[in-house]
Amino acid sequence: MSYEINQKLTKILDQIIERNPGEKEFHQAVHEVLGSLGPVISKHPEYADDAIIERLCEPERQIVFRIPWIDDKGTVQINRGFRVQFNSALGPYKGGLRFHPSVNISIIKFLGFEQIFKNALTEMAIGGGKGGSDFNPRDRSEKEIMRFCQSFMSELYRHIGENTDVPAGDIGVGGREIGYLFGQYKRLTNRYESGVITGKGIPYGGSRSRIEATGYGAVYFLERMLSTKNQSLEQRRAIVSGSGNVAIYTIQKLTALGAKVIACSDSNGYIIDEAGIDLNLVQEIKEKERGRISQYADKKGNSVKYIQNGSIWDIPCEIAMPSATQNELTNKDARTLIKNGLIALGEGANMPCTPKAVELLQEANVLFAPGKAANAGGVATSALEMQQNASRESWTFEETEIRLSKIMHNIHDRCYETAEQYGLPGNYVSGANIAGFLRITDAMRALGII
Ligand code: NDP
Ligand code: 2IT
After folding, report:
1. Confidence (pTM)
2. How remote is the CA of residue 162 from the centroid of ligand 2, in Å?
3. How far apart are CA 170 and CA 348, in angstroms?
4. What is the pLDDT of residues 242-281, one digit of tens each?
5. What is the position in ligand 2's atom list of the atom closest to the CA of 115?
């Protein structure tokens, strides 16, 4: 990835940094995209007319709100809620909600900004948005989670709608939370408006394969990327960070396609199981008991190593799929992975590799799939959920999975071809940024200065 950007773009970036002080994740995400646009602006200068890039980097609307709720001890708790409605040129704002203590406006804006491009790459009618709260779900009871979700939705409901803004899950927001959020929305509006939120349970309007979609999609992308070099996943030693929704279904699909996944993690540490990760056990610990990954080693005994803190990327592997959080894979990690023979990396999480790590991986000719393309399967299947809700249909697992795999192959091919077209063969970062940019800005240009 080249961060050498032309003068016009540098000026825009400087202004964005000045107007959004301290928002380091947001600056990082914008820098990466603007860093890819030089060739487009040189070839088609009209794409910088009418402050289109500045408009693209300024959210249409940002909502920040108070979330009061009462914990099990009767104490009043206050959290902060966010919804950034970034761009609606292609459709209603669409993007997840993150509940994690680290959440702040910079993180929500970086995620919302990335989402615009990701959603454009799916070629579906969805704009970009993101939201969440600094609420920490860890060790909260079921009833506390429910009360929090209800309070969160008591403000959010007035800003969303199936044609306006359609949230979904992200870190800390899974099927349980989506159920409580949808329940409160339904109660407040007195409408059964299924398409207002995605990631719902199957009995009340969810789509089959949505739970699996991000992880499966990321593996489909990776497989297609490997096939451009006549390689496959067969027998490959793989590492997946995290052990949440994206990680679990990434491990499942990698294993199904012949790879051997030997490690995964949570925010406390990582496990190494040379026999291959026992996914049923991970699911029991993480999905059912909502426990810690260290319990995997406790249950398996001596054959499994648990390493507290430390970096999962120290383990030699050929395939790496960071699927936990932003900036979890640093330049030091990239160096180690390259030294140990990494051949491909697919970002399951949003922006998990630092800019320097991406640069090193690309220089070393590691196949690199950026998150905004590789993890688009989740939001694409959310759009399939919206389609089913609108037509009051419910498709089979096979139907949704076939559609998902086709969408991922199309995204891959679009990124690949765009990179070639702009003289950057194999650069999926530029391919994704340019292809996404062209689709959004073609729509924005047609809609006038709004
Ligand atoms: P989950 O909450 O299901 O799982 C998150 C996992 O990442 C957990 O193992 C968690 O560990 C770990 N993690 C979270 N925050 C940190 C942190 N600050 N440091 C270290 N580890 C951390 O979330 P998802 O699997 O849904 O999301 C994972 C990533 O994928 C995120 O970047 C998300 O934005 C992205 N993504 C998600 C999509 C989806 O559909 N869900 C779609 C596209 C991208 P612990 O339990 O210890 O917190
Ligand atoms: O980052 C993401 O794409 C998501 N968390 C999923 C968003 C969605 O609307 O399904």
Report:
1. 0.98
2. 16
3. 12
4. 999 999 999 999 999 999 999 999 999 999 999 999 999 9
5. 3
